[in-house]
Design brief:
about 160 residues, alpha+beta, Ubiquitin-like (UB roll), DNA polymerase, domain 1, 2 domains
């Protein structure tokens, strides 16, 4: 069964005619052309498809698009300000926390949710905040990502420069 749904993605409203069984991941990538959100496992086990819905991390491969109507959806494409990277993206880049980059968008989105709720997390809180992500290049979560988040939090640059 198909119907028109209204989604607010990265601050813009979209009306899309979709099968009600389509996931948010499918709609973002195939209907809206937002391919930064990755499809890796399609089972909610890797975190690559993480987006923020009303500020909370959601696995878009397990979320039906119809379920998030009326909510604010933020994808990796909504973070940067034109050519200027978001502070989290910049921190990942500076600390070489980006291997092939496939898992990075989801990890960045979970990091944003973490830092928005706790701008000065401990290392254990950082590890917990990104624990749902699997980096296939590094066989889990790399120390570079934890270091990038820790350094950003300690610098205070996130609180000062975030375009939350």
């Amino acid at each position: 069964m198909k119907r028109v749904i209204k989604l607010n993605v990265n601050g813009s409203d979209h009306e899309v005619f979709v099968d009600i069984r389509r996931t948010l991941l499918e709609v973002l990538r195939e209907e809206l052309g937002l391919t930064g959100t990755k499809n890796s496992c399609d089972m909610g086990a890797c975190g690559s498809c993480t987006v923020l819905v009303d500020g909370m991390p959601y696995l878009s491969c397990l979320t039906l698009a119809v379920e998030v109507q009326g909510k604010k959806i933020l994808t990796i494409e909504g973070l940067a300000d034109g050519e200027k990277l978001h502070p989290i993206q910049e921190a990942f880049y500076q600390k070489y926390a980006v291997m092939c980059g496939f898992c990075t968008p989801g990890m960045v989105m979970s990091t944003k949710a973490l830092l928005d709720s706790n701008p000065r997390p401990s290392v254990d809180e950082i590890k917990t905040g990104i624990s749902g992500h699997v980096c296939r290049c590094m066989g889990g979560i790399g120390h570079d990502a934890v270091d990038a988040i820790k350094e950003l939090a300690e610098s205070g640059n996130y609180e000062e420069n975030s375009n939350a």
